Amino acid sequence: MDISNFVVFKKKEVLNTVVSIIIPIYNVETYLNECVNSVLIQTFKDFEILLIDDGSKDSSGKLCDEIASTDSRIRVYHKPNGGLSSARNYGIDKASGKYIIFLDADDYWVDKYILSLLIEKSESKNLDVVRGELVNVDAKGKQLYTPDLSEESLKLKNQILGSYEMMKFVINGRFFSWLFMFRKSAIGCLRFDENRKFQEDIDFAIKFFSKNYRCGYLPIQFYAYRQRKNSIMSTPRISNLANSFALCDIFHEYAYKVEDKRLTSYYLYNAIMMYYWTLETVASDLYISQYENIEQELSLSSLQKKVYRWVKEASEFHFPVHLYVNPCVGVYFFRIRWWGGRIFRRFKIIR
């Protein structure tokens, strides 16, 4: 397929925009230029960049305007702060491209051919969504440990996948929305939950892939995911736990709404395991000192009883013992396992 057929960009106007890159902006003046430049150097030129300034308190908003003055493909929108989901939704509503891809303003793309490759794959196979992969970098952009792509994932490169295969074999617990290029018409009326301030990508994916789409996989680690201190992930917030536990209900609800019924058992399994994984987080050093407050505020005993009822619906799976006991006991099991592993590693080192 000749990618040059799609390069219709003219300096003074966007005639036939193929892809809209939506970049939410909030207090990221340090990283914004690097982020936008990683898009501007793309060999594929028929795109628009939507910079959504979500009420930044630093000079990010002004910097957006300065960057936009250098290229007519860049549009800036200033809005009151509403959070990441609000900014992404605003961008979706304003996007004019056939495809949509998200990019967080403190991250960047490492491959200047990525748009060409994504468009070529989507157009040649008539896909609704294409997924790539990430590399982990630190605050200065130095690459951190990133697992190599597995042999199993590489085998999916030339296949047309359904939503079931995409969820189970490609995403496999890594739900980051910015690794996907979506056909805008496939997104339709779906939007990110603006009441959710944590793990909004999981919520969006659960709902999006409940419909059966034509999906493709591009095994290229193109997205530099910057891991910064004091991020949402590394800051203890009970609200984060509440959002995570709430995904149990979202998975369970959509388990019975999916178009591909193979996803029913997969969603049901994840509804149950989200409780387990989040309870493991509660048991971590980050949260354990707040356990009594967490148990009361989030009604963990009631949640555990509900999850236990779901276990009976998923009788084909074998689940960890933590799901069958009071959450306090479950947390105790996690702590014993953690300390046991630490002692074992220390014993091996001493020996």
Walkthrough of the structure:
The chain folds into two domains: 3-226, Spore Coat Polysaccharide Biosynthesis Protein SpsA, Chain A (Alpha-Beta Complex); 238-350, no CATH class. Helices cover 43% and strands 15% of the residues. The protein contains 13 helices and eight strands. It has an eight-stranded mixed β-sheet, sandwiched between helices. Helix 2 links the parallel strand 2 and strand 3. Helix 8 packs parallel to helix 9 (238-255), helix 9 runs antiparallel to helix 10 (262-282) and helix 10 packs antiparallel against helix 12 (300-313).
Question: What's this model, at a glance?
Answer:
This protein has helices at 32-40, 60-68, 84-94, 114-125, 151-154, 163-171, 184-187, 200-208, 238-255, 262-282, 291-297, 300-313, 327-350; strands at 19-25, 47-54, 74-79, 99-102, 108-109, 129-137, 180-183, 215-226.
Q: Largest sheet, order of strands side by side?
A: 3-2-1-4-7-6-8-5
What's the name of the CATH homologous superfamily of the largest domain? Spore Coat Polysaccharide Biosynthesis Protein SpsA, Chain A
Shape: globular
Q: What's the domain count?
A: 2
Instruction: Please provide the ordered H/E string of secondary-structure elements.
Output: EHEHEHEEHEHHEHHEHHHHH
The CATH topology of the largest domain? Spore Coat Polysaccharide Biosynthesis Protein SpsA, Chain A
Spans of 5+ residues with little confidence (pLDDT < 50)?
1-15
